Amino acid sequence: MRSPLASRALLMLLVALIVLVYGFPYAFLVSTSLKSPQAALAIPPTLLPQQLSIENYANIGEHPSVQRSFGNSIIIALLSTVITIALAVPAAYAVARYATWAGKTFLFVVLITRLIPPVAVGIPLFVIMRALGLIDTHLGVALAHSTISVPLGIWLLASFMEGIPRELEEAARVDGCSRFGALLRIIIPVASGGIAVTAIFVFLASWNEFLFSLLLSSTGVKTAPIAIAEFKTQYGIQWGTMTSLAVLFSLPVIIFSLLMQKRIIAGLTVGAVKG
Amino acid sequence: MKRICLVLAILVLLSLSLVAGAQDPVTLTVLVEQGGVWLQEAAAAQFEEETGHTVEFVNVPYGSVFDRLSAEMATGGSAFDVATIDVVWMSHFAPFAEPLDDLFTDEVVDDLFASLVADAQIDGTFIGMPTWANTEIIFYRKDMWEDADEMAAFEAEYGYPLAPPTTWDEFTDMAQFFTRDNDGDGEIDMYGTDVKGGVADFEWMIAVLQAGSPGVVLDADNNIIIDNDAHVAGLEYYISHHCDMDVAPPNVNEVDWGVAENLFYQSQTAMFRFWGHAYRLTRGDSPIADLVGAAPMIAGPGGIGAIPGPWFNIVPKTSQNKEEALQLVQYLYDHNAMGIEAPLGLAARKSAYAQYADVEGFENLNPLLETLDSPQTIGRPAVADWQQIADEILGPIGSDALTCEHDVAELLAWGRAELEAMGYE
């Protein structure tokens, strides 16, 4: 029989292995960004920089459009998150509360939209946005991102809301609250953990999205993933610049996720245990 | 008095008509990738000053130029007045591009390389104005080629003086000569050259032209020639440095252009065939920064041959500022030499290259000129499904050939069968 200490050690080893597998690409990214541009291209590549260099980071100042693109990414991701949550919360509430045939069909149809490759809807979206005069606008790109995020949001939130006791809402109704008032005053606060988790996922989806941002932006609202990809040209890849930008691009999300860690875990476990 | 009034009225009318005829300043949107910005921004800025128009570059990653313009074409509209596109996309965008025949005067045609003039046309109509042309040339280590001991040793072994290679045989001799185990540990420390199996869909085509083929894969009438003698000879030469002699790093499938460039600039290969722009981009902190020499591409039995990689400015038919867009395209051609001062240091006009060819720091331009001007420097066939041919036929042929286990003629026969299945004859 294995002792608890041995089991724990084995578990820790397994965790360390998983962390290593997941963390290595990012660690290598950070390491490459701290190499000189020449060292970044060494064959065979070195794991750690032989000499720390911040040249790649210092060079970012030479690309003002890249700096603007970070601002655009933040605006678009926030806008997309707000739109998605605003649409997904009532939709998820309706589906969760009225477990009707139509609601289940709706959930299924919503899931189907997630199965369509984004490239297939790229051109129709482009036509719609152009007709609406939303090409190269923050709102246009954010709306396009919401087409991906709303189905995800509805599915996530519906599962959270199913876990909220119906009695809570009924008590509010007895106290004179309207259905919409109960949603605002009771359901949303109770589901705030789930909404936070959904918002984070939606934000991340928009933050990293490439295709729609490419099709719907020109110079005005170019997002960071596109600006970073521009350093892969026909004549080579500027690894140093790309990796330093990728590190900077990932930092806000990492910091945000660390700050929200408890809330995310709490949100993910909402509804996991049913009484 | 009446006469004065009449004259004044006529003058007013004339001046009004002149004002009405003058162009209002417009913003011209140009779709490009980074190279297009570098090479055209100086001329575009000058165009802005002279005309009052504004030129706005929409810079996207390389492959996204195709995606973005395809989306515009599919929707029948365009946010772009000019697009700078790779030659391999010309056929695809031909229905979407405004004819530019009026811009191609005899003088213009004379100042462009023949392959560019051919590539600029689809079905006899000029649709793109070349803006720069690149091609592979030879890069070598000057310090090694000019070393007295190396020169003596080479001549003693091969019977002719050591100089940048000009033929297939010389290239092979020098690749063998410089492949070395410097520290005697049984491992090769420097290879004579490389074999770029990572871009096998392209690299062996160059040897095909050097072998004397009238084109690659298809002839001028789009008839299949993939199994002609020159294709066989070219493919055999391409793989020989890997299969018959160990003069290139053995992991050929991992060697694409980026890796090949790094191998050379980190002193792991003595010479290599590479795009001419790299000479100007040599990094100051490279261990061989001041030691790089450039020479024209080598010649096979058919002479010097290479595949050009030109980019063209096209004017989408849907542009709302067509007249000004054509004006910009013409201006960029007229001031084509300004691109040579840019980081990539490339242009499309012979006169532009000639203007800088003897300037210090531009030693790659004479080799580029000579290679681009060679009759065996021929573009890829202008067929809309070229990328499919490259991906599904040429790449597999190159990769299979580099396993050294296949008969080259059989591989090319398979290529013919595949092309026939695609509808070619």
What does this structure look like?
- The complex is a heterodimer of chains A (275) and B (425).
- Chain A is mostly helical.
- Chain A has two domains: 4-33; 63-269, MetI-like (MetI-like fold), CATH 1.10.3720.10.
- In chain A, 73% of the residues lie in helices and 1% in strands.
- Chain A contains 13 helices and two strands; from the N terminus they run αααααααααααββαα.
- Chain A has a two-stranded antiparallel sheet with strand order 1-2.
- In chain A, strand 1 and strand 2 form a beta hairpin.
- The longest helix of chain A is centred in the first third of the chain and has 34 residues, at 64-97.
- Chain A is globular.
- In chain A, 33% of the residues are buried.
- With 425 residues, chain B is α+β, with helices and mostly antiparallel strands.
- Chain B has two domains: 25-135 and 309-372, 3-Layer(aba) Sandwich (D-Maltodextrin-Binding Protein, domain 2); 136-307 and 385-421, D-Maltodextrin-Binding Protein, domain 2.
- In chain B, strand 1, helix 2 and strand 2 form a beta-alpha-beta unit.
- In chain B, helix 10 (200-210) packs across helix 11 (229-243), helix 10 (200-210) packs across helix 16 and helix 14 runs antiparallel to helix 15 (365-372).
- Chain B is globular and about 100 Å long.
- The model of chain B is unreliable at 16-21 (pLDDT under 50).
